[in-house]
Queue: 4 jobs
Job 1
Amino acid sequence: MAARAVSHPEFHSVERIGWLRAAVLGANDGLLSTASLVAGVAAAQATTSDVLIAGFAGLLAGAMSMATGEFVSVSSQADTEKADLALERRELEEDPEGELEELTGFYEARGVSRQTAEAVARELTAADALGAHAREELGITDITTARPLQAALTSAVTFAVGAASPLIVVLASPTAMLLPAIVVSTLFFLAILGALGARAGGANAARGALRVTVWGALALAVTSAAGALFGAAV
């Protein structure tokens, strides 16, 4: 009795790479930059209201900056992809046989026999010539295609969510414990965020948590020291 093929869904981390990079970057940046900002202001002996104003301003400015930066950056990538696809479409129209030979060569280079490579190239060309060349020659697929708006919105929202965390801590902490509360909570949140980001990307959670926590501690130390120095000077 012949074995029956079993179809099962597979979920790969690379399928999330488009929005995952922007989400992790936005949340990390929102949490760390805002926490560092309010830690520096708090270290300068500012009032709780001053710390909140500075933090909220940092949240708004940072979210808009992240959205703008991601949109411009990913739009540039999308423009490059469109230009390359347009060039490939023109080459397919002007020299279809040459493009067929080129596609055949890609499969031969992977170890496929000439006869099989040519047969595959002809079938793929008949089905979707541009799509086949986009994948094999340009490395453009549905997974890697640039999505500027998605990247911009993801970065802005996750930045705001990350930035809100230290502001909530400021609201909930007594003035005398403001700075240590910001530092401890930020390192805790960074560790969680680093672990979640690594896990979502299929990497080691502990390594991801340690990486962002160490750099976060360094950023907090620098801004707190600067705040204390300027606060003493004033």
Note: The two ends are 86 Å apart (CA to CA).
Job 2
Amino acid sequence: MQKILLAEDDPNLGELIQDYLELKGKFEVTLCEDGHQAMEAFKSSEFDLCILDVMMPKKDGFSVGKDIRRIDKTIPIIYATAKGMMEDKTQAFELGGDDYITKPFRIEELLLRINALLKRSAKDKKAEAITKFELGEFFFDSLSQTLTYNDQTQKLSTKESELLRLLCLKKNEVLTREEALVKIWHDDNYFTGRSMDVFLSKLRKYLRKDPNVEIVNVHGKGYKLLISNPG
């Protein structure tokens, strides 16, 4: 059974959501009425998803979400608020939120969003477990941090290995600059961006031995690891 942390200061609404999700979604829901309770609950147990009301006493939902992200970078977070203001929505995603729902909402819609996020989370976890990749004539082992071409093995630094692994997980798709910086450096400022450029240059140098493998810039978005068939 999957566990949900629900932080909602309206006890009637909180109990309604809790009862519905436990009945219809077959979840175990821990209900907290303020931000402090929510953080204590999160620290003392393991959860699969968090639903955080933005306007809560003692500690608001955005502050709770920010603290949760310091502990767990991947747990899905849904923010709920009565405001519905664009700046709140923007802040929700800037703080690492995965979804946003505006009150009043239909509980059925919330359940659909929960199921979609949990399905995506399970898929991401499965992908995250992959540690070995074939890149054209290369073999990349992210655990040993080695990139092998024929009988030649290049030892990668931790950052090089993490960056190449992210590119491999999104092979032939765009890896945004922001995602790479946040996941590897936990920051997306100018200086970490310049640091990442250095590691990208090194990876491109390593991969030159196979002309069918290249890392290309996607203007205004990020990077893409392209692997084409020879011939």
Note: The mean pLDDT is 88.
Job 3
Amino acid sequence: MNPRSSIPTGTMRSTSSAPQPHQQRMALSGLHSLKAVAKEIKARHAQQLAHQQAQEAARLQAQRERHLFAYSVGKVTPLRPTNMYQIPVQPAPPEPLQLQLDEQNVLREAMSDAFDVSTLLETDAELSFRRPGIGPDVTRKLRAGQWSVQRQLDLHGLRTDEAREALGQFIRLAQRTGLRCVRIIHGKGLGSPGRMPVLKHKVLSWLVQKREVLAFVQARPNDGGAGALVVLLQPGARWTPL
């Protein structure tokens, strides 16, 4: 008799299909891994939810702070405006650009660089100028400082065109506002090429051509000396006798 034939068939199948110990350990290990992953996912979800809740709380707090007064007062009803006058908006007056351009052109044409002023200047002890009909006592008083200088113009550092325009506007405005005595600082020309006072000679020529100028003299040493002129202007609308 064959020994194998004495073992029941059902008993042999049951022994071969039973899980082995190492298979059971692998199954338990996989189960623990799935639980750990599920726990990690749950923890991350909880952390993200807490972060979102914190952001929402901060937004609501900021909104409450911005509207603190409204929250404190509560609902209000605006009063109907009464006895209020609406001021009509006045349009800005148009700027006379063309008039300004025309005046600038007149200034340029009225003061020519080609004008010969040498025959009109008095070169006695100090350089001076006075129009016909103006007595020598006027220039004498200007030299003595009996006329108070009310305003001055400094032409240092300006180019010829800039200096001519600045001088013309200054003289015109000074005369219109009632100024009588002004000082024009042209410099001594020490920084010019050849140390020649180019701007000084031009200023002399320009002043002689201005109808508002009655006379001028070289300034006293303490007022600029050879680098400045004291100018007497015709009376303007606001002039009152000294």
Note: The first strand starts at residue 122 and ends at 123.
Job 4
Amino acid sequence: MLLPNPKGNYSFLKGIAPYSAGAVAEKGYEIVHARFVQPVPLAKGFERVKAHLQAVRRPAQALCGMELRSPRPFTFPGFTEFNTGYVEVLKSWNVFLDDLNPVARTNIAPEIGAPSVPSLYGFTYTAPSVRKEKTFIVAGAGELPEGSLNPDDVIRKGETSNEALREKTRFVMGLMAGRLQGLGVDWAQVTTTEVYTIHSICSFLASEIVRPLGKAGIHGVTWHYSRPPIVTIEYEMDLRGCYREIFL
């Protein structure tokens, strides 16, 4: 379900309480992707986001995506507890829209060099633009059906064989395709494809990821040697179609 967020100048796909499933900028605006050189502890990261938005004369409601890095994967109950504090900050910014969170999110745990505390790696926001192309972000998703945080719903739960990983990947690619369709865009408009797993995907990288990307495959795939945010989930992806990428 694509819902308008006029204060933020974008529309978003309804997700679950902690995050939306994606966002697409409205006409006259584009989504800008900002990334820190190194992750910033989350509390400080929120301050940095607010300061940046003020510096570029954008309201807090322009925030449409957050990219988090965690010390290690959460348990399912731990993930719920973490989300409570995270959501409270966004509510205090008056970002929520009719009790819905419009801000998409990816949250992963680097296997090597992880931060000691939950941290902010990057974020996206809308800004005025004369660009005609649609810009968008698709939130991170692992091998769980849309809307579920039930560990029993994990596809091929507890399995990491090559065939199980192939099935997980195929399932997540299906989620990505569905979210692209919901945003009114397609694979050809994707500029960045990111994969998060510590397991080898080499044997099916071409058949299950690069070929289905179609024209977006020319941009390659960024593989982060990281775990998804919750234990028992082994593979995650996110996407974006952005033309302005900045480092802070």
Note: The chain is about 25% helix and 30% strand.
